[in-house]
């Protein structure tokens, strides 16, 4: 995670433009005129759009541009207000932001063949990866699924890459054959971002040799927790034991007891609240950790994940 993950800064909206149906691109510059940190393709920033309204958005500009960051936001009228607040930002308005942060970092020294898959607004973290792969002379391809051509952002840029970009427009009968993409990728890495159903289809199609890197842009439907009963959380630093009732998250309980806990999306998609688990079995409910990471890394996202046992000991 970047050194800048928790740095909060004021940014000014330098420009905004509708780049597709329901999608606005917002250019943000530092209010103090000082250079912005560079970032790696796949990084996001957290925009603080109001009290309790902090949302992660992937950066889709040039990682080496230290004057301006660009995000693209899909308006979601059925959402919880983050995208509407972002769409309402006007030129000249100041907005606070944290990051950049990355849980989905594309290696700048990528070699060989790379397969990209995107769905809808999930193109935003993938686009800087595509540019990086193209600049490095990597053999890459992008399969991009959109609902309609009017909802297609960055059309001109994508068109310039010719046959390397395969568009699948559903209202024209286009269908992304996920199984074929995964089979064709073989042991080449697959980098994907999109709605949960696309990423679930990729995970289902993946075999033991598949090197799948995914980032969802919305939280999927959460399954029922493993335990319906309360459980306990022991804080390693103080030995204090807190009870987590079924209707509250570990994060909420920590905050309620004045424990400093950093968070952003609060829905298991950004990785900000990652916490080390010293003891106990976790009911992982986030969409950040891969199945392999869940088995091998002693961490959990405390905003959504819970205990699958009576007590967890956390490095808090
Ligand atoms: S706050 Fe985003 S994963 Fe927990």
From TrEMBL:
Residues covered by the FAD-binding FR-type domain: 6-107
Alphabetized PROSITE patterns for the sequence: 2FE2S_FER_1 (PS00197), 2FE2S_FER_2 (PS51085), FAD_FR (PS51384)
Keywords: 2Fe-2S, Flavoprotein, Iron, Iron-sulfur, Metal-binding, Oxidoreductase
UniProt domain 2Fe-2S ferredoxin-type: residue ranges: 231-316
Pfam family, one: Fer2
Signal peptide segment: none
CDD domains: fer2, PDR_like
Cofactor(s), by name: FAD
Keyword Iron appears in the UniProt entry: yes
InterPro entries named in the record: 2Fe-2S_ferredoxin-like_sf, 2Fe-2S_ferredoxin-type, 2Fe2S_fd_BS, Beta-grasp_dom_sf, FAD-bd_FR_type, FNR_nucleotide-bd, MRET, Riboflavin_synthase-like_b-brl
PANTHER family membership: CARNITINE MONOOXYGENASE REDUCTASE SUBUNIT, NADH OXIDOREDUCTASE HCR
UniProt-recorded name of the protein: PDR/VanB family oxidoreductase
């Amino acid at each position: 995670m970047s050194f800048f993950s928790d740095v909060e800064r004021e940014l000014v909206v330098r420009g905004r433009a509708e780049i597709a149906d329901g999608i606005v691109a917002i250019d943000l510059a530092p209010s103090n005129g000082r250079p912005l940190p560079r970032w790696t393709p796949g990084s996001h920033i957290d925009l603080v759009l109001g009290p309790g309204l902090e949302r992660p958005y992937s950066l889709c500009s040039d990682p080496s541009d230290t004057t301006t960051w660009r995000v693209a936001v899909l308006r979601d009228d059925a959402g919880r207000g983050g995208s509407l607040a972002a769409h309402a930002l006007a030129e000249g308005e100041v907005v606070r932001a944290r990051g950049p942060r990355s849980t989905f970092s594309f290696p700048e020294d990528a070699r060989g063949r790379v397969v990209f898959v995107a769905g809808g607004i999930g193109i935003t973290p993938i686009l800087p990866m595509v540019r990086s792969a193209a600049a490095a002379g990597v053999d890459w391809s992008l399969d991009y699924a959109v609902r309609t051509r009017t909802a297609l952002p960055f059309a001109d840029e994508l068109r310039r890459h010719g046959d390397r970009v395969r568009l699948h427009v559903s209202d024209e009968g286009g269908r992304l054959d996920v199984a074929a993409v995964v089979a064709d990728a073989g042991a080449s890495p697959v980098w994907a971002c999109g709605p949960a159903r696309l990423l679930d289809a990729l995970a289902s199609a993946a075999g033991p040799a598949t090197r799948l890197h995914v980032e969802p842009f919305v939280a999927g439907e959460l399954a029922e927790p493993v335990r319906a009963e309360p459980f306990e959380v022991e804080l390693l630093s103080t030995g204090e034991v807190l009870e987590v009732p079924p209707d509250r998250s570990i994060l909420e309980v920590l905050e309620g007891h004045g424990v400093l806990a950093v968070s952003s999306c609060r829905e298991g998609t950004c990785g900000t609240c990652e916490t080390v688990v010293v003891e106990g079995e976790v009911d992982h409910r986030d969409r950040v950790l891969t199945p392999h990471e869940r088995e091998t890394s002693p961490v959990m996202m405390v905003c959504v994940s819970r205990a699958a046992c009576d007590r967890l000991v956390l490095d808090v």
